[in-house]
Amino acid sequence: MKILLHICCAPCSIYPIRVLKTHDISVMGFFYPHNIHPYTEMKRRKDTLISYAEQIGLRIISQEGYNLEEFLRNTAFRENSRCHYCYYERLKAAALLAKRGKFDYFTSTLLYSKFQKHDLIRSIGEDVGKTVGVDFYYDDFRTGWKEGIVESKTLGMYRQQYCGCIYSEKERFAGKSLTQT
Q1: CATH classification at residue 90
Q2: Which pLDDT value is given to residue 176?
Q3: 30 in Cβ contact with 6 (< 8 Å)
Q4: Hey, which residues does 135 pair with through a beta bridge?
Q5: 0.90 exceeded by pTM
Q6: pLDDT at residue 98 greater than cutoff 60
């Protein structure tokens, strides 16, 4: 079985890759950069992922370009629903690539984070999968949360302090109370 794994960052990929490989699943990674801000943060995450992928022999496909403007156009004045848009865009891109590459399934490291909206990710993934014609593979990777953190620290990986978008950066460093209106 072949699966395309959307990867938001190297630390979040450790546990899902390990689990998928124990199920004898052939894994290829997919990095989608448009939702990660600023550019220097995206570049640091991408470089860390590429380095880790080389260490473990994982092939990675990276979405071309850096379309910050489209992300901002689609989230401005909709900040409270930005995660839905972000999940949808990443999962749709992964599903389309999985279909084109004749993968059996696609999934995401978003399912690893205890900070993400897990039920929403699953729902969007399943809906996108039906629309595109490739199945969404669901696994609650949060069970390996601590294991992945320990491993990423042992490997000396760059560990980001926020989800990725400029809004989550603000919440992390300025505090959630500043984002409430």
Answers
A1: 3.40.50.620
A2: 63
A3: yes
A4: 105
A5: yes
A6: yes
